Amino acid sequence: MLNNCPNRNKKKKFVTTLLNWEKKFGRDFSWRQNRSPYNVFITEFLLKRTTSTAAQKFYIQFLDRYPTLFEIKRSNIHDLEQFLQPIGLQKQRSRGIKEAAEFIIKNYGGELPNTFDELIKIPHVGNYSAACILSFGMGIPAPAIDSNGVRVISNVFKNQLDPSISIKTILQFSWDLISPRDHTLFNYGLIDLGALLCSYRGCSKEKCPMRIICDTYQTQKKQKNES
Ligand code: SF4
Domain containing 197: what range? Predict the structure, then answer.
């Protein structure tokens, strides 16, 4: 749990900085332009364990061939598997997409449901994908925080978060930071900042707009000055 409550000004500064940065430097993917719930649902399947560059090349092709869940349901699993070959993991991906499509058609008539609890009951749709479908596809505020976002929050609020904190707690914590009006931009901002600057390779230091309020950056800077 939280050691102490991060102060309101810091949280506000975090949100404002993230939104401003995303407006200027956010990445432009084709799946960010036409965001129907179905398109977001497909995007998340294509992005699983695949780079965004590979998924980007394949995304439009997939939507052309399978424009709705019904074409997926009617498809032959071997054809689907072969079609998915260019982005890899075709066996798991084809089985997952087909099972999920069949479930949605059977239980919701082919329309993706609009609550988190219903979405996570769909086979192969986890917390992150469910939040993406809500926030990006339906405009409903939800914390679509992937591992990149978890890393950014953990670094910026390091002194306020217990070291043994779980991802679930970080997700709960992030609810408190989401701007109801700008939740889509906020979520894209966390994904992009975590991918481009606060990556698993380490801190981008002077390039990062969060450095003034980032506990990790400030601690490293202090240690460097003292050594
Ligand atoms: S200052 Fe460094 S550690 Fe902090 S959020 Fe930015 S890139 Fe991550």
Answer: 8-26+143-220
Alpha-carbon span 170 to 191, nearest angstrom: 15
Distance 205 CA to ligand 1 centre (A): 6
Q: Are residues 121 and 216 in the same domain?
A: no
Does this model's pTM top 0.70? My answer is yes
Q: What single letter denotes the amino acid at residue 41? A: F
Q: Does 175 fall in a domain?
A: yes
**Ligand 1 centroid, distance to 216 Cα (angstroms):** 7
Is residue 132 within 8 A of residue 169, CB to CB? The reply is: no
Per-residue pLDDT tens digits for 67-103? 999 999 999 999 999 999 999 999 999 999 999 999 9
Say which residue the tokens 């059977």 belong to: 106
Q: Ligand 1 pocket by C-beta < 6 Å: which residues?
A: 152, 155-156, 197-198, 203-204, 208, 210-211, 214, 216-217
If you count them, how many residues does the chain have?
A: 227
Instruction: Give per-residue pLDDT as tens, 93-141.
Output: 999 999 999 999 999 999 999 999 999 999 999 999 999 999 999 999 9
Region 173-188 average pLDDT: 86
Q: Taking phi first (over 0 means left), then psi (-120 to 50 degrees means alpha), and beta for anything else, what does residue 146 get? A: beta
